Every structure is written in structure tokens, then in C-alpha cells.
């Protein structure tokens, strides 16, 4: 996550930085519900809690490369990582949430894609939706 966030904070086009930055973590629901089931759940909670705070600011955790080479004449590292963090939003979405929204089927609410039987129910519902469309 550190490297992805660093890339996001440095993202720019024609020498201009975007006014909005969005990082979205996409995982199975069980990883979000069972805190600590994966290392990134700790990282996401930690980063969410220190985003923009003075003590332990996320900017202190993310170190930009020491070599300030540019990619072209317009590209440069941001002068203030803290300022770029003011434009960052962190989200955590699950596969199941997205699928439930798309299929809008009450029979698939609360499924856990890491369980084979639930995955079969989901794929059957998706298949039925494809056939109907």
C-alpha cells in the first residue's frame, strides 16, 4: 500500500497535480469484517486514522525516492507531501458489495465469496442475470 499511495500522491499530468485523489482497497468482505485477517487491514486502519493528523502524519510514513530525477520536462515530485494528502480519500470496498449492488438480488445478500457454496450461489445469480439480459 505504501508504494501505491506514493504513486498516487505523485500522480500528475502535464506538470499539474489533480485536486482529488482516491485510493480504494478492494477485497473479499471477510477481510474487512474480520479485522486483521490480512496485513493490509492493519495498514488501512492505521493510514485512515493518521491521514492528515499532525502527530504521525501519513506523510511521515511514505518516503519519496531520494533521487529527484524527473521523467520529462514537466514531471516533478510534489514539493509538499502533506499538502497532497489534503486531496486524498481512502475507501475500502468489498467484491460482495459491488456484486450485490450490480445484481440487486435479495437472495445474494450477505454472501462470503471465500466459501465455495456462497460463490456458487453468486455465480448462478450472475448467470441468470446474463441470460435475462
Keywords:
single chain, 133 residues, mainly alpha, two-stranded parallel ribbon, 7 helices, 46% helix
Describe the secondary structure blueprint for this structure.
Elements: H1 2-10, E1 21-27, H2 29-33, H3 39-50, H4 58-61, H5 81-85, E2 88-94, H6 95-103, H7 116-132
Total number of beta strands: 2
Q: Helix-strand pattern, N to C? A: HEHHHHEHH
Helicity, in percent? 40-55%
Q: Ends: how far apart?
A: 38 Å
The secondary-structure class comes to: mainly alpha
Provide mean pLDDT, rounded: 80
CA radius of gyration: 19 Å
Largest β-sheet summary = 2 strands, parallel
Report the principal-axis shape.
elongated
Strand content: 5-15%
Q: What is the spatial order of strands in the main beta sheet?
A: 1-2
Helical stretch tally: 7
Low-confidence stretches: none
Give structural notes.
The protein has about 130 residues and is mostly helical. It has a domain at about 1-95. Helix content is about 45%, strand content about 10%. The mean pLDDT is about 80.
Briefly characterize the structure.
The protein is mainly alpha-helical and 133 residues long. It has helices at 2-10, 29-33, 39-50, 58-61, 81-85, 95-103, 116-132; strands at 21-27, 88-94.
Amino acid at each position: 500500500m505504501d508504494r501505491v499511495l506514493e504513486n498516487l500522491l505523485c500522480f500528475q499530468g502535464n506538470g499539474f497535480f489533480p485536486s482529488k485523489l482516491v485510493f480504494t482497497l478492494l477485497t473479499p468482505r471477510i477481510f474487512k469484517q474480520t479485522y486483521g485477517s490480512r496485513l493490509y487491514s492493519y495498514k488501512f486502519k492505521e493510514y485512515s486514522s493518521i491521514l492528515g493528523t499532525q502527530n504521525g502524519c501519513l506523510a511521515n510514513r511514505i518516503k519519496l525516492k531520494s533521487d529527484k530525477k524527473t521523467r520529462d520536462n514537466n514531471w516533478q515530485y510534489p514539493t509538499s507531501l502533506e499538502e497532497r494528502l489534503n486531496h486524498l480519500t481512502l475507501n475500502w470496498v468489498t467484491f460482495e458489495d459491488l456484486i450485490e449492488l450490480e445484481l440487486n438480488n435479495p437472495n445474494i445478500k450477505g454472501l462470503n465469496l471465500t466459501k465455495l457454496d456462497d460463490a456458487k450461489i453468486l455465480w448462478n445469480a450472475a448467470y441468470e442475470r446474463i441470460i435475462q439480459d
